[in-house]
């Protein structure tokens, strides 16, 4: 298969993002360039090393270290991604942040950080790439079932994901004219670091695994996936 397409994925260092990258590296799926965003960490370094050592289709891995909550740095990074790749065909807005708290203990600064990472960063990535003349085939926004139904103790996270679901509908309508598909996934509980923050008592082996969600993300690159309504796809065990 021709491998001339470019994926840009945020939150690549762990969890669902890392599982998605592993899948795209091992699959002969037409995506030859993988631009990967996360903050600098040992997890991120280690993942890139492991993938480079086992890269059966010689895909180009382009890691970019950035804090998505830092708007100026993100804008610079998007420009660097666009220069390095020549254009992004598929964008996966996967990175997510939460610090669950009761309403009376919630700080506005933390709400702002949640919105920055979960909502404003996806908006900035899409806006900056459009401004650079980028034509997307596909944008996948990873929301959450918590954005469909509010959850006690998760006000900031639930609200950010509800807004992401709505923003995805706007993107879907507005970017149709460019032939861009916009899918919004709402995963249920999935065994990652973020989930263990939300539900520390839960046994991770009893719930959905990151690889399951990664499978669905990759499915969205297939022709068959064009036949499903991808506005709010609930993905759960
Ligand atoms: N796990 C679940 O049960 C579940 C359910 C529904 C939806 N989701 C959504 O799935 C997505 C992936 O989450 P996950 O469960 O895989 O969580 P995770 O394992 O904690 O991974 C979160 C990812 O987001 C990145 N990230 C967080 N804050 C960042 C920041 N300020 N700048 C740059 N990157 C940042 C992290 O990278 P760093 O290395 O930089 O920290 C990491 O790669 C999120 O949007 C989450 O809300 C998860």
Write the topology of this structure.
Blueprint: E1 5-10, H1 15-26, E2 31-38, H2 42-53, E3 60-65, H3 71-85, E4 90-93, H4 108-131, E5 138-142, H5 155-175, E6 181-187, H6 193-198, H7 210-219, E7 233-235
Bound molecules: NADP nicotinamide-adenine-dinucleotide phosphate.
Write structural notes for this entry.
With 237 residues, this protein is α/β, with parallel strands linked by helices. It has a single domain, classed as Rossmann fold. Strands 3-2-1-4-5-6-7 form a 7-stranded parallel sheet, sandwiched between helices. The longest helix is centred in the middle third of the chain and has 24 residues. It starts with a strand and ends with a strand. The structure holds NADP nicotinamide-adenine-dinucleotide phosphate (NAP). NADP nicotinamide-adenine-dinucleotide phosphate binds next to helix 1, helix 2 and helix 6. The site of NADP nicotinamide-adenine-dinucleotide phosphate (NAP) has 30 residues, from helix 1, helix 2 and helix 6. One of its GO terms (molecular function) is oxidoreductase activity, acting on the CH-OH group of donors, NAD or NADP as acceptor.
What structural class should be given to the helix and strand makeup?
A: alpha/beta
- Main sheet characteristics: 7 strands, parallel
**SSE order:** EHEHEHEHEHEHHE
* Ligand list: NADP nicotinamide-adenine-dinucleotide phosphate
Tally of strands = 7
Q: Can you tell me the CATH topology? A: Rossmann fold
**CATH hierarchy, class:** Alpha Beta
Mean pLDDT figure: 96
Rg, nearest Å: 17 Å
Helix content: 40-55%
Number of domains: 1
Percent of residues in beta strands? 15-25%
Q: How is the largest sheet built, in terms of strand order?
A: 3-2-1-4-5-6-7
Protein name: SDR family oxidoreductase
GO molecular function, one term: oxidoreductase activity, acting on the CH-OH group of donors, NAD or NADP as acceptor
Organism: Natronoglycomyces albus
Family: Belongs to the short-chain dehydrogenases/reductases (SDR) family.
């Amino acid at each position: 298969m021709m491998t001339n397409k470019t994926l840009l994925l945020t939150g690549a260092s762990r969890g669902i993002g890392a599982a998605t990258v592993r899948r795209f590296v091992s699959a002969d799926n037409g995506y030859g360039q993988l631009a990967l965003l996360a903050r600098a960490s040992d997890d991120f370094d280690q993942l890139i090393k492991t993938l480079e050592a086992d890269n059966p289709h010689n895909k180009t891995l382009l890691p970019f270290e950035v804090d998505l909550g830092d708007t100026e740095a993100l804008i610079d990074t998007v420009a660097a991604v666009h220069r390095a790749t020549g254009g992004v065909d598929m964008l996966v807005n996967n990175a997510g942040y939460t610090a669950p708290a009761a309403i009376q203990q919630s700080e506005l600064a933390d709400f702002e950080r949640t919105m920055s990472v979960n909502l404003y960063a996806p908006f900035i990535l899409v806006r900056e790439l459009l401004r650079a003349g980028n034509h997307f085939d596909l944008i996948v926004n990873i929301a959450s079932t918590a954005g469909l139904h509010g959850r006690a103790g998760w006000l900031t996270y639930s609200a950010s994901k509800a807004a992401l679901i709505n923003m995805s509908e706007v993107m879907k309508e507005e970017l149709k004219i460019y032939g861009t598909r916009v899918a919004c996934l709402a995963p249920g509980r999935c065994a990652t670091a973020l989930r263990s923050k939300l539900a520390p008592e839960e046994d991770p082996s009893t719930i959905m695994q990151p690889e399951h969600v990664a499978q669905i993300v990759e499915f969205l690159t297939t022709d068959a996936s064009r036949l499903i309504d991808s506005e709010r796809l609930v993905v759960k065990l």
